[in-house]
Design brief:
Shape: globular
Strand order of the largest sheet: 1-5-4-3-2
Order of helices and strands: HEHEEEEHHHH
Helix content: 25-40%
Largest sheet: 5 strands, antiparallel
Strand content: 15-25%
Number of strands: 5
Structural class: alpha+beta
Distance between the termini: 42 Å
Length: 209
């Protein structure tokens, strides 16, 4: 919908509020370690006294995951602009190959009031949020975006758009491992115009050649 370039010696946080100001829309924000005061405020809320409002189970990619969600309206105010609700998500992930169990507690805030989104909808929105996080992870790990030296004018945003386009095309072609897809097309550029073929079809074509 929109992009805003972060300053060279800053990060995304100062750029986010003016970006959101352009839209008459709500937000949901997963609170990371760089929001120390807000995260501390959320951790201190009486979560143990609050009922469980949503439970989601998913399976795939070699793991099973259960996510439990609680929501709290904070009348005294939250340390983030326009936030009216706090969210706690406890995730329990089991690796189906090794049996290893991982647990993690995640906090989030939202400008959505209780009547605007029920707990199930908040859980759905957060799941979508993590898919955006995954996109950022792919751009950084596969394309080394954070280490890019392209910083002049609108060039960084243009490159981000091109990376997103490339990732989208590879996923549309059936690739789930973007790093493997990038390696494939880097060494076989003649396959790129035929990216509508699946990875298996590309492999078959390579074998036939």
């Amino acid at each position: 919908m929109a992009q805003r370039q972060a300053a060279a010696k800053s990060n995304e946080i100062p750029a986010m509020i003016p970006l959101l100001a352009r839209f008459d829309r709500h937000y949901i924000l997963v609170v990371k370690g760089n929001q120390k005061k807000l995260r501390r405020q959320l951790r201190r809320l009486p979560w143990r006294q609050m009922p469980l409002l949503d439970r989601t189970r998913t399976a795939g990619h070699g793991r099973r995951e259960v996510r439990r969600l609680k929501v709290c309206t904070v009348d005294a105010g939250l340390l983030f602009p326009h936030a009216v609700q706090a969210i706690e998500i406890k995730r329990r992930r089991v690796n189906t190959n090794t049996g290893k169990v991982q647990t993690k507690t995640v906090y989030a805030v939202t400008s959505l009031a209780p009547g605007q989104a029920d707990p199930a909808r908040l859980a759905e929105l957060l799941q979508g949020h993590w898919s955006v996080e995954a996109l950022h992870h792919v751009r950084d790990v596969t394309y080394a975006e954070d280490a890019s030296k392209i910083r002049t004018g609108s060039a960084p945003r243009a490159m981000t758009t091109l990376r997103n386009l490339a990732i989208g095309l590879m996923r549309q072609a059936g690739w789930t491992n973007i790093a493997a897809a990038a390696d494939h097309y880097r060494s076989r550029p003649d396959h790129a115009p035929r990216s509508s073929r699946s990875p298996a079809e590309n492999a078959s074509a390579l074998g036939a050649g």
